[in-house]
Amino acid sequence: SSGINAEWPLRPGTVLMLELWEKEDGDHVIRFLRHHTGQDLIEYTLPGCSEGEGCTLEQFYKVNSEFDLTEEEYRDACKVGFPDILPGLSKNTLFLLLCISILVCLSSVSMLTFYTYRVKQRAGIYPTGNSSDQVRALLQEDY
């Protein structure tokens, strides 16, 4: 951990700043600051750095070296990208399974609709054949 966990998590409207300063001797130092609306500017002292002096670049790199992540570690930590639902299957296979599932659902709905229509037709709710008298009678009924 970085050792600066005061008031975390940050509230909305908080600004974190890293300032890079060049000293008169040519060395560079980094200061880590936080500001929130209505509060004074707070300077954090990172572990291994001098209070009020900031960190040299070497100290800053050393403190942050524990946070170096590979792309895979970053994606795993942040859960970025397509979720790994079934680790053994490729994304193409998962996409194909998704398409097949959608087709099965659509065909099931179609069959259920057709079955419902046939049941209602046999019950006399829908006309059978091409009898125009039955169609007229249905159109004139009040539902």
Report on this structure:
This protein is α+β, with helices and mostly antiparallel strands. The model has no long low-confidence stretch (mean pLDDT 78). The radius of gyration is 34 Å and the shape is elongated. It has helices spanning 57-64, 71-78, 91-122, 132-140; strands spanning 14-22, 28-36, 42-44, 55-56. Strands 1, 2, 3 and 4 form a four-stranded antiparallel beta sheet that branches. The protein has four helices and four strands. The N and C termini lie far apart (71 Å). The protein is 40% helix and 16% strand.
Helix content: 25-40%
**DSSP strand (E) fraction?**
15-25%
What ranges have pLDDT less than 50 throughout 5 or more consecutive residues?
none
Overall morphology: elongated
Order of helices and strands: EEEEHHHH
Q: Whole-Å distance between the termini? A: 71 Å
Structural class label: alpha+beta
Give the averaged pLDDT, no decimals: 78
Number of strands: 4
The radius of gyration computed from the alpha-carbon positions, rounded to a whole number of angstroms, is 34 Å
Secondary structure tally, helices: 4
Largest sheet entry:
4 strands, antiparallel
